[in-house]
Design goal:
The chain is an alpha/beta fold. The chain is built from 28 helices and 19 strands. Strands 1, 2, 3, 4, 5, 6, 7, 8 and 9 form a 9-stranded mixed β-sheet that branches. The protein has a 6-stranded parallel β-sheet with strand order 12-11-10-13-14-15, with helices on both faces.
Length: 668
């Protein structure tokens, strides 16, 4: 594979990005790839290759206030032609500005897939442009960082983050590309305690007046405001005030180098806190091995390479709590946490109280903790990203047309193999993936969206059902289960989305249905049964029903009056029994039914009782006279009238009055 790494900084410069890019280039070459580095040099003129034609340097301006960062113009037409000749398979941008922009231009012009690594939390660096120390300027700068980071991330086919902390930050910027967490690896062997040269260790300690038996704390890294070295120095001053004596070496350069030295001198601790400045990178492992513990108060790390270097060197860590160190520091095993000066003093006290055997155990734990961060594993994981991206780049789909359909979007796609496809996607996916006419989708994205399409269609059908008639959560869930091919996870997602959007609201449904059924004169029990079948929670139903129960008897009475109108020919007893049955069927309790019936006026029915009895007897006669005669007929007619709720004495009296209509053979 032919690979180009684009970076604003590269050795001999000393910083995390330069080191990470250097390690990656070596591992990629070891794996048999052709690797080129495009970087900068301070000066003017044309771009220039190194002797073996593997590093192309672009002219730029050194910014002293940014600790020697070389800013270059992102437009290099002659360099573009040089890069064209390399016939690259992939471009990997390690930085966002200058060379990073040039990387994106090359990828677009030369039609080469682009991967980027986000090394730097730029939000922690806005003070470099906030000369007035203004809160407003800082807020505007941070928002600008978010917008630019999103732009750079979305212009790549995939983004690599060195830690989960960095990935979470990028997700907060709403970057739409896939983000893989791949920690930068180290050549762990070069830092191994087994490689210690005792003569070098003694020489380093002697140079800074540190006794071989004294315990030594070290910081290695850039000295800048975001590293919070002022907190660490004050912490050591606090420790000395409490009688905790330990030596401290600060190794590194940067804009705060002089400030650190001045601070140590002003606090009167310069003899014990030595700010020695930068050392050659080849000597850094020896400085680690000359110390006993590593300390840092930085909260701006995206991975914290110096933490890994220190652990690989057998040094436990003293750090402020941050996501980056959560997997590195186990208190009681590989280090200590602190938050302020008092915490630093306490951590130093705990460190000094360790026996030599306990410290040796910490050291072994530290080396073990660093093992997963080998440069070989780092190179392998990055290559996996390259292979995936190159394959995706070959199989992309161009968005030819976009048609919005209600709550979904119809895409018309054409693949790199000229295959045409229609794809229905949700508005959320359409927005989150930044789709628009003329843009492309990766084959993996299309495959993922294709799997979601059934859910998109089902969601639209659910909206149609809800538009026609209000539904409960259970009703929609049951319909999706029985009428679509969606899996349970998709169904839950659809139902939750409908609920979150306000299309489904069981509480609102319950309130409306209780009101509607009360208007329809339904009783408490019927309302509860009906809503429970709809899947409304029992407690919710009871709460709503209880709020309207004061009208229960009144509603029952109204319902009973309506029923009475069509029962003029019933006896009073039968009518009351019938009313009670109807009321209980309508959902009223027996007690409520009895009270409602007791309120009714049956005087009109009582006046009509005799006529009703006559009609009952005549109907019974017609019913039974073909089958029975004389006494037997009389008995059946009597029993029938009795069963209809009429009183026996009244039945006898009316039957005697109506003697002529019965053919009694026994009396003839």
């Amino acid at each position: 594979m032919r690979i180009a790494l684009f970076t604003d900084t590269f050795p001999p410069e000393i910083n995390g990005v330069a080191n990470s890019t250097y390690i990656l280039s070596n591992e990629l070459r070891k794996a048999g790839n052709e690797v080129y580095v495009v970087t900068t040099y301070a000066g003017s003129g044309r771009s220039r290759w190194n002797e073996d034609h593997t590093i192309l340097r672009l002219a730029g301006v050194e910014l002293k206030f940014l600790y020697g960062y070389v800013m270059t113009n992102p437009f290099h037409m002659l360099a573009l032609e040089e890069i064209r000749k390399l016939n690259l398979d992939i471009i990997h941008a390690q930085t966002e500005f200058g060379v990073g922009i040039f990387a994106r231009l090359c990828a677009r012009q030369l039609h080469i897939p682009l991967v980027s690594t986000y090394h730097t939390t730029y939000e922690d660096y806005t003070h470099y442009i906030n000369f007035l120390n203004s809160h407003t300027v800082d807020e505007v700068a941070k928002k600008g960082v978010a917008r630019i980071s999103k732009l750079y991330g979305d212009s790549s086919m995939e983004v690599i983050a060195p830690s989960q902390k960095t990935k979470d930050m990028l997700l907060g910027y709403h970057i739409r590309r896939e983000i893989s967490v791949i920690p930068t690896g180290l050549d762990l062997a070069s830092f191994s305690p087994a490689e210690e040269d005792e003569n070098k260790t003694l020489a380093i300690r002697k140079k800074y007046n540190i006794d071989p038996r004294e315990r030594l704390v070290i910081y290695v890294g850039r000295l800048a405001q975001e590293k919070s070295m002022d907190l660490v120095i004050r912490g050591f001053c606090k420790a000395y005030d409490e009688g905790i004596q330990v030596k401290f070496l600060i190794v590194g350069g940067g804009p705060d180098l002089d400030n650190c030295r001045k601070m140590a001198e002003e606090l009167g601790i310069a003899d014990d806190v030595r700010v020695i400045g930068p050392v050659p990178s080849t000597e850094v492992p020896d400085y680690y091995r000359a110390a006993d513990v590593f300390i840092s108060a930085s909260l701006s790390e995206t991975q914290g390479m110096t933490y890994i270097e220190a652990l690989a060197s057998g040094l436990p860590l003293m750090v402020r709590h941050d996501e980056v160190v959560e997997d590195l520091v186990e208190e009681g095993k590989t280090g200590w946490y602190f938050e302020d000066e008092e915490g630093i003093a306490e951590a130093l006290r705990s460190f000094l109280n360790l026996s030599d055997e306990q410290l040796a155990e910490y050291s072994r734990n530290a080396v073990e903790k660093a093992e997963p961060y080998s440069s070989k594993i780092f190179g392998q994981k990055v290559l996996e990203v390259y292979n995936r991206v190159i394959e995706d780049y070959k199989h992309q789909y161009r968005i030819e047309d976009v048609v919005v359909k209600g709550n979904s979007v119809q895409l018309y796609l054409i693949s790199s193999e000229k295959e045409e496809m229609r794809l229905l996607v949700s508005l959320d996916d359409f927005a989150n993936l930044g789709m628009r006419e003329g843009e492309t989708l990766l084959s993996r994205q299309v495959a993922s969206l294709k799997k979601k399409e059934e859910g998109v269609k089902a969601y639209q059908k659910c909206l149609n059902r809800i538009a026609f008639k209000d539904r409960t959560r259970k009703e929609i869930y049951d319909w999706l289960t029985q009428n679509t091919g969606c899996d349970i996870e998709t169904i839950n997602t659809i139902v939750d989305k409908l609920e979150n959007s306000g299309f489904l609201n069981d509480e609102r449904y319950c309130k409306e249905q209780v009101s509607r059924m009360r208007t329809a004169l339904a009783g408490r029990n019927k309302i509860i049964r009906t809503l429970q079948k709809k899947g409304i929670p029992y407690d919710m139903i009871i709460r709503e029903v209880d709020s309207t129960d004061e009208n229960e008897v009144d509603n029952a009475e109204i319902y009973a009056r309506k029923v009475m109108k069509n029962r003029r020919n019933d006896s009073i007893v039968k009518l009351k029994n019938y009313l009670k049955t109807k009321l209980m069927t309508q959902g009223y309790s027996a007690a409520v039914a009895d009270e409602a019936i007791s309120r009714l006026d049956f005087s009109a029915n009582e006046e009509n009782e005799t006529n009703a009895l006559r009609r009952c007897l005549m109907k019974a006669n017609l019913k039974y006279q073909r089958k029975y005669k004389n006494t037997e007929l009389r008995n059946h007619i009597f029993r029938h009238a009795l069963s209809q709720g009429f009183k026996a004495d009244e039945i006898y009296a009316v039957m005697n009055e109506m003697e002529g209509w019965i053919n009694d053979d026994e009396d003839s």
